[in-house]
Amino acid sequence: MTTTLTGTIALITGASSGIGAATARRLAEHGASVALVARRGDRLESLAAEIEQAGGTALAVEADITDRDQAEAAVQQVVDRFGRLDTLVNNAGVMLLGPVVGADPAEWDRMIAVNVRGLLHTTHAALPHLLKAADDSPRQVADIVNISSIAGRVAWGGYGVYNLTKFGVNGFTESLRQEVTRRHLRVGVIEPGGVATELASHNAPEIQEQMTTPFYEQTEVLAPEDIADGVAYMITRPRHASVAEMWIMPTDQA
Ligand code: NDP
Q1: Every domain of the chain and the residues it spans
Q2: Which residues are marked as active site?
Q3: Mean per-residue pLDDT for 123-149?
Q4: How much is the ipTM here?
Q5: How confident is the model over 87-101, as a mean pLDDT?
Q6: Which of 84, 120, 184, 243 has the maximum number of C-beta atoms within 10 A of its C-beta?
Q7: Across the chain, which distance is largest between two alpha carbons, in Å?
Q8: pLDDT value at position 4?
Q9: Angle formed at CA 112 by CA 34 and CA 176, multiple of 5 degrees
């Protein structure tokens, strides 16, 4: 048995591309009103228009979640518009690879700022609203889904600080789950393997050549929709069932 998302409100960070955009489309298909958060406002506006044309409800919210004030304002804008918040999908992320030795620490700062601090900012701002929805909405349950990575389960050379951020996301997710699950706020993590998105394209050309392009050329990777399906599965469970962790891999990736 699954529950419908009709009447619920979902905020998805990193909704301007890849997994976040696919998740917004999928949750809207399930009936959720979706708030699309990222920095590229033009992308958000065109996705919102596409979702609305298909009969859904979408709100584009341009924000840089590394800035706590902007993250808080984004959550507030969603609650002001829709009256409450049922689902937070912490998806925004960056992956900048390469050896630790001789690395540019500015790349580390960027990953920590988005993957860790950004996730904390939106989570902190959303928690009171999610707990309220878990308490007094018709479904009496609310959800946080954090998009981690296989890199939150396994460490590899060249993934050092990305590993650090995603292992951190896994640990934080489980700690928060234990804190709030009895209040019917479900908190779960999804750990994708390789997905065809823009993620690797932010790396220097030589890193792409050595570390990411060969993998993507040789592997039948996941589509963003495969992860969107995972998010939809998690949040459409009946109230008594919480999916705490979901590891989704390309069949081709060992
Ligand atoms: P994309 O690069 O397509 O998407 C990343 C999203 O994050 C974009 O929408 C981007 O929007 C947003 N983002 C980046 N910085 C900020 C910021 N400061 N404030 C707000 N939004 C921001 O990659 P994916 O879809 O692949 O990535 C989504 C998540 O999935 C990430 O957390 C990633 O680590 C994870 N993941 C991806 C895998 C893959 O193989 N692709 C595998 C495992 C996990 P904008 O630039 O407009 O701000």
Answers
A1: 9-248
A2: 162
A3: 97
A4: 0.99
A5: 98
A6: 184
A7: 54
A8: 87
A9: 60
Q: Cα(97) to centroid of ligand 1, in Å?
A: 14
Instruction: Show the tokens assigned to 157.
Output: 């050379």
Contacts with 55 (C-beta within 8 Å, 6 or more apart), sequence order: none
* Cα 136 to middle of ligand 1, angstroms: 32
Q: Residue 3: its pLDDT value, please?
A: 56
Q: Encode pLDDT of 95-121 as tens digits.
A: 999 999 999 999 999 999 999 999 999
- Over range 204-209, report the average pLDDT: 96
- 181 Cα to the center of ligand 1, angstroms: 27
pLDDT for the residue numbered 105: 98
SS3 per-residue string spanning the chain: CCCCCCCCEEEEECCCCHHHHHHHHHHHHCCCEEEEEECCHHHHHHHHHHHHHCCCCEEEEECCCCCHHHHHHHHHHHHHHHCCCCEEEECCCCCCCCCCCCCCHHHHHHHHHHHHHHHHHHHHHHHHHHHHHHHHCCCCCEEEEEECCHHHCCCCCCCHHHHHHHHHHHHHHHHHHHHHHHHCEEEEEEEECCECCCHHHHCCHHHHHHHHHHHHHHCCCECHHHHHHHHHHHHCCCCCCCCCEEEECCCCCC
| Ligand 1 pocket at CB < 6 A | 13-14, 16-20, 38-40, 64-66, 91-95, 114, 118, 147, 149, 192, 194-195, 197-199
pLDDT at residue 246 tops 70: yes
**Ligand 1, closest atom to CA 90?**
32
Write out the two tokens for 115: 């993957």
CATH fold of 9-248, please? Answer: Rossmann fold (3.40.50)
